[in-house]
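ok here's the first one, seq then struct tokens
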Amino acid sequence: MAAYGLYTHITSNKFRSMLLLAGLFLLIYVLVYAGALVAEVLIDGNRPADYYLVAASRDLVKAFPYATVAAALWIVIAYFFHQNMIDAVTGGQDVTRKQQPRLYNLLENLCISRGIPMPKLKIMESDARNAFATGLNRRQYAVTVTTGLLRALNDKEIEAVLGHELTHIRNGDVQLMVVAVIIAGVVGFFGELFFRMFTNLSWNSSGGSSSSSSSSSSSSSSDSNSKGGGGAVIVIIIAVVLILLAWLLSQVVKLALSRSRELLADAGSVELTKNPDAMISALRKIENRGELPGATSAVMELCIDNPREGFADLFATHPSVDSRVQALVKFAGGHDPGPLALPSEDTEEELEDRPEDPANREAPPPLPSGPWSDAKDPAAASQAASQGPWVNPAGPWGRH
């Protein structure tokens, strides 16, 4: 679907996202098939590879309705309790206008200006600078902001961040990302389960193969066992590859969903606030300062910034701040102040707690001295005299 403007980009992105989510859901059945392969080898380890492939296909058909019901049940549980789980991890607390009048008014004004239902407002006690939106329907929508963000950003920048999160809600990004995280969690859970089964199988198969080889009495039975053992090894390798592929594709799908939506949310914030410079400045202040201590990767994927470095950057769910800022400069006409330096090891609080060193105290500028002043410093007096007799604002009626 070709896209030429902001709203057509949003529509096109929703269409692609639904296809990606359908593919993500199919990965569950890939894992079920891999589990059926492992189960067939556990039941009988002396069969050729084609037997296991056909038998696992039959098992998949039988298990299809059960896998669908289990996945649907997982989604239903997450639908009603995902916000409670996120609050338990992050420590987010609901706040009212009386508790946070500054933040509440900024969010309410944005909602009124566009006729958007007011989401719940939550505060998370953390020095990190980050924010995220959650919820699967109007009664569940919530915007969570860290206290570190409130201290570091001014009103215009906070308004831009709130506009970014409201855009996620308006565009339906929150629902899709929550569902994607849920399904990816299913894939990760069953993938880990099957790997544990494979670890146990490796020990059992090694013992089984040694006993079968010692008990073989003829060359024909030995050949059949070796063929069966070879088939079992091939099937186990196929199962492991399928599990790895399902996990890798689930990460790629989450990455594709989030990366495209962050750019659209930045653009939506500019549309709401009409202030691209505020969005750019907010991103620069948040850059590399948004890591939430103790938060899971699933929570970080919902945040406005999900900093990753090194190998983890290969699976980063957010585009870099530089690329987001460049897009705002190019398409919204904003101005980039450039990356802001990270604070040094000595924080501002530590510097404030230190006693002031008289040697480092900045000396006040010398008072200009005139013929009627009370200055005693010869250098100051000579400097004032060179500037004229009327330079001292105190004059003869000054201090004595």
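and now the second one, same deal
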Amino acid sequence: MFLIHALSMAFAMFWEILWALILGFALSGVVQAVVSKAEMSRLLPDDSPRTLAIACGLGAASSSCSYAAVALARSIFRKGASFTAAIVFELASTNLVLELGIIMIVLLGWQFALAEFIGAPIMVVILVWLFGRFLSERMVETARQQAEKGLAGSMEGHAEMDMSVTGGSLWSRVTSAKGFTAISHYFLMDWAAVWRDVAGGLLIAGALAAWIPKGFWRSFFFTGHPTFALVWGPLVGPLVAVISFVCSVGNVPLAAVLWNSGISFGGVIAFIFADLIVIPIIDIYRRYYTAPIAWFLTWTMFVAMSVAGLAVEILFKTVGWVPIERAATITEAHVEWNYTTVLNIVFLALAAILVWRAATTGGFGMLRMMNMSPQTQGGRHHNRPRHIH
């Protein structure tokens, strides 16, 4: 009975966000189809404010998959980009993307989405300051030497694939046959990259909502002590994320459960920020840059995420934007004829069109190479689908 209840709640959240997921990944595919990865390293040569702003913009135009973001950050670092700019790009890839904002609006509300997009630049500023104080040239050189070894991580093939369409206006690129194909391929790859996180996040969220009494969460988050909870939430939020193993947009359903259960507003934001310090990604940092650099990235990101979450809550409390009601969309599973069902039908049709286009233009061949390293892909060049330029 408990299992059925948990699965029921997981399905309810999935049904609520299905259309938003499809819309988000479709828009992400459009952006990636017109933004070339080939220029990223050239545009990120140093740690200047202009370069870091470009890194944020490029990250926002990239895939929201945390593993692909980490792999692409190492790739552009190896090609000459600044280490700080590469990490800033990585943070923006998972915190400033359109699909994340859409899902947050649907499940949590516009206040959380706005806090995410305001808090992410604050987090970047804090992280850059920490790097300036504690990141030495020797550490960067150590990270570069380790990165050059090319040890396998995850989603490296996805990170390396560049199917962007060049030449002509943005509109002509998006509406061309090649643009349509590129969008469909990115749509398919992004879904393949994050479906485990989305499914895992929904199942964990459903289990927590169904099985753990709210009294436990209220005690854990110190809801009876508002001043202490203000600080405690942004500190404990990333720690919950670290052990949840869920990243990318998959942690938004879990954030909704935590919000309904009593965690502070800033704790929710810090929790969502922390998708880049979950345990599997920390292990990838170790392989990419050595264990000391992995530890450095973990603690600096943790500090930046926690302080940014706290800063956003104080700001939003000041202007009166912190929601009073804890009513994130977590409902019992049922399907009825309402706007959600209509939107799901419309966007499922869109998804079917994009998947059909990808299937008929070599997209599924690319899926088989998503977890391959670029070296392995090179050995299978004769099986590689055409890149689109």
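notes on #2: The chain has a mean pLDDT of 86. Residues 2-373 form one domain.
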